[in-house]
Amino acid sequence: MVEPVGNQYVVARPVYSENLFDEDHEKLHRYHKTFWDHLKLYFRCSPQRVKKTALGLFPVISWLPAYRFREWILSDIVSGINTGLVAVLQGLAFALLVNVPPGYGLYAAFFPVLVYFIFGTSRHISVGPFPVLSLMVGATVTRLVPDDSTGNDTSTNTSTIDEERVMVAASVTFLSGIFQLLLGILQFGFIVIYLSQSLISGFTTAAAVHVVVSQLKFMLQLTVPGYNVPFGIIYTLKSIFSQITETNITDLVTSLIVLLIVFVVKEINDRYKAKLPAPIPIELLVTVLAGLISYFVNFEEKFNVAVVGTLEEGFQVPIAPDVGILQKCIGDSISIAIVGFAVAFSVAKVYSVKHDYPLDGNQELIAFGLGNILGGSFKGFASSTALSRSGVQESTGGKTQIAGIISAVIVLIVIMAIGFLLAPVQKSVLASLALGNLKGMLMQFKEVGILWRKDKYDCVIWVVTFLAAVFLGLDIGLATAVAFQLLTVVIRSQIPSCTVLANVGRSNIYRNRKDYTDIYEPEGVKIFRCSSPIFFANIDFFREKLISAVGFNPMRVLRKRNKALRKIRKMLKKGELQVTPVCLICMANNIQESDEELDNNSIEELDQPTNMTDLPIQIDWSADLPPGITVPQVDIHSIILDFSSVSFLDFSAMRVLQKTLKEFIRIDIDIYIAGAHEGFLDKLERCAFFDEEIKPSIFFLTIHDAVLHILLKKDIASSPKVKLMEEKDSSSDYIITLSNGLRSRECTV
């Protein structure tokens, strides 16, 4: 019963152990489904399940019939046109990161959008090339098809290398799509949870640094080979600075001007986005202006600048991936698949929360997987989403993926009809546009200081991820970062927070005894809390902390007591001890026996419970013992283990915990466990945790229940009045005011 009294409450109920609570409240024994039950349920077929599966696999069926044509179509058209223009330019720019001709970036901006329209669950992200993913594909491309080191830079050789690189990019994209599709079918959408926000931030920042370095050769127009090896970024910078005197000044000046304009206008877009009807399409304006100037001034011939050149009109014939290439890029494809999905899902989640609609991680994997399979078949490269492009689609009024289809139409027009207008655009301009989209990623350096103040573990993860990805490469760096992140989780769980609790304010609240002054600690009772799961890696740490908290090693005490009993038996046999009703009197002088003689006995015998049945008197270990016999003093009689934060206990830890509890029980210390979660007791019973020494009755609902049980037990043992009261009326409730001031309303003891 709960009685509210102002801003306080009074609770009157019995002291409950787990078993007593289950009996009083008739706990139901529910049937828990087995793995086979879940498997049967998953593969069960019914009309409703078929409909649900179809709607889940083809989300377009759900939202397209409900499309508000009059309200949304104009917004989607405007958004689609703006997004399509940005997608064209980013496709051309990010193709340079992949080390393939710019025109192939248009394929990557077209095919995945069509697939995502049918299979995707986000209404606002713009699917297509992403700089980090493009750079990862480019690293694989340069590893498998390096630059021509002979210096024979003829058009034939260049064309051959480009064809090989396109095949590698398409093959690795196809394989990454296969991995994403398989993960989606196998319901592995949860895999993104292993990439924390700190890891993703550090990784994308490192990728942005790689993008900057990789674009320097286009901005300076230098011949720099690709180095896809650990510390490759250092070799790349060394190659650039060794050729710095050969820089094409026209490309350099053009790049700097474009970068300055793009950064300034993007800053204006950010600051005044609430007042602007739509972001200023600076990429489009700069590209058009740069193309016109390059065409009329004839930069290619006069200043020997590198230009986009003629783009092939129409689509190329679909190709099958090269099996030989697939075998060499399995690891790269897995990294690309996971990073692409993680980035896209993170961006999609932002918009789903903002606009209040659900996302399906598994379906997103299927959508991106099919998109990459189709894109790779048509010689495109890996797609995900870019935050800047998705921001354009959402901020210009995009309501659904109809805007995505409109953007794909814009890309299609460029591919089929007007691609020749982009021929005079300098590659250095595209490189500058690629760098202009990295501002948000590079600004993530600010997070280091914030993370250091808020969570040092996350800060270390960020720094390690960044350094690993920068110096070891994006593929090895990502694997290193994930391994390090999981290591920090193991370390934090392997070294859990263990504290000794005390009663605060003479209430039912128990907190760390070091944090409060108004505390009460029941005499002879230690309350110990472990704030983490207990498993094979931290059970030894848990045991050490528990022993440190109580102030003695129970095994050492038990062995000392058994040695003392053995010695007492020998002295009684020799007549050196006289038994009185209250104690033992030593009749001999200078009784000594070396520890070596006692240690020669079996250790197993010393670890058994003390047995005094053959002695004429029960030994009180807290009293004075005969001369020559010393046993460590034990000043506690009960230990309460707070398991409210222990989410699981594995079998290895269970065996060690059982052994530890028995050690305490064998030296006459009562053990109680409080706050264990539901199912904990059942698991212990299944694993044969309980026996003659450890019984289920040691489990209590709360710490306070266990404390009151101990105090009542001690008061009843020491007070005849309480014992008489219990015998007189054991069936009705009664209130006992204990000597320590804690009040208990009891039914049974």
TrEMBL record:
Residues 515-710 form the STAS domain. The keyword Transmembrane applies. GO terms for cellular component: membrane. InterPro entries: S04_transporter_CS, SLC26A/SulP_dom, SLC26A/SulP_fam, STAS_dom, STAS_dom_sf. It is a multi-pass membrane protein. NCBIfam families: sulP. This is Chloride anion exchanger. It comes from Tauraco erythrolophus.
